[in-house]
Give the backbone structure.
Amino acid sequence: MKFLHRGLFALVLTFVFHTTLSAEYLYKDEVIFNPLFNESVETLGSELYEKTGISLRLVMLKKLPKGMHIVEYEKELIKEFSNPTILLTFSEMDSKVDILANDATLYKYFNKKQVLSPIASPVQAFVVALLNMDFSDMTSGGTILPLLAQKSKKNEVIGKYSGSMFNGYADIAEQIADSKNVVLENAVGNANQKSIFLVKSVFYGFLFYGIFMYIKRRLYFRRKRLEQKK
């Protein structure tokens, strides 16, 4: 019986130790729980660290601690790391995404504003600015929020979370690699662009349909006015 208890205890320790080792770059995951997602993040994060010395860690939270802002949470968490570290943090219930580095010089290796932009393309940015009559900020190229904003069925939500967050994670990693003049063998590359192209296609589809219906409606009322004058 004691042998059984010792064996069970050893098994638990082995599992915990293995989980800790395999979750270095997917640092916290309270949302996805997918081995393939974990492996993809770990593989890319490990290669990035080996070639640049920068740790890019993904944190997937179910919910932020009560009364805590996402930036406050990141500032507390990032104290655990001494090496150059960038946190990409997502909180499902709070609908929040943020990026924080433990050294301000790390921001020069990637464009935080672009990664977190809710707008996918320059054309979309121009249209939004035109509608709001505000051209002061036309940042586009977002690789997380445009995908998160897409409607999905209940059984597809986790897939949307994993796709959008890995898309952003890969975008940051590839920007850092480019800035450091290194090539990542596990880079996503064109897969990111395909995802963003899909978002653009959906957006432009709705946009052009809206313009078409607006013109059709204007022509209809114009024709009605002309008929009344006769």
About this structure: Confidence is low (pLDDT under 50) at residues 1-22, 190-194. The two ends are 101 Å apart (CA to CA). The first strand starts at residue 26 and ends at 29. The chain has one domain: 24-229.
